[in-house]
Amino acid sequence: MGGPYGIGGAKWPGAGRVIEESGELTQVLGKLIGADGATTHWDGTDLRARLVEEIADVRAALDFFAEVNDLPLDEIDERAARKRATYERWHAG
Predict the structure, then answer these.
(1) Considering the chain, what is the average pLDDT of its residues?
(2) How far is CA 58 from CA 16, 68, 93, in A?
(3) 60 is in which domain, residue-wise?
(4) Is the pLDDT of residue 1 over 70?
(5) What are 55-69's pLDDT values in tens digits?
(6) How far is Cα 7 from Cα 12, in angstroms, rounded to an integer?
(7) Is residue 56 part of a domain?
(8) Is 68 exposed, middle or buried (0-12, 13-18, 19+ CB in 10 A)?
(9) Residue 86 lies in a domain
């Protein structure tokens, strides 16, 4: 399914899917920024709903990629928790 880097591929399976899904998330975020935060896009779509879907798709792709490539999930979880705490501090000011 999509060559060596696709799901089922022989080299870093799922890498292509992570890139594709990340690109789709980037596209929706770009539309939100371009619309100055408005969630109703000019084409009539609900950007908030699309954002939720794309975040879920990226999360699924990353989880799949990490697991099938035998990456240390505990280290990933620990790093993510530390990074999230940093973002929360920045947001709080």
Answers:
(1) 96
(2) 12, 15, 28
(3) 15-92
(4) no
(5) 999 999 999 999 999
(6) 9
(7) yes
(8) middle
(9) yes
In the structure encoding, which two tokens stand for residue 86, read together?
């940093």
Residue 8, φ and ψ in degrees, nearest 5? 90, -5
Q: Per-residue pLDDT tens for 2-59? A: 799 999 999 999 999 999 999 999 999 999 999 999 999 988 999 999 999 999 999 9
| Whole-structure pTM value | 0.92
Question: What does the alpha-carbon distance between residue 63 and residue 46 come to, in Å, rounded to a whole number?
Answer: 26
Q: Which two tokens stand for residue 72?
A: 């240390």
Residue 38 placed within a domain: yes
Counting the structural domains of the chain, the total is 1
How far CA 37 is from CA of 25, 48, 60, in Å, comes to: 15, 10, 25
Helix axes 47-68, 73-92, angle to 10 degrees: 150
Does any domain span residue 2? no
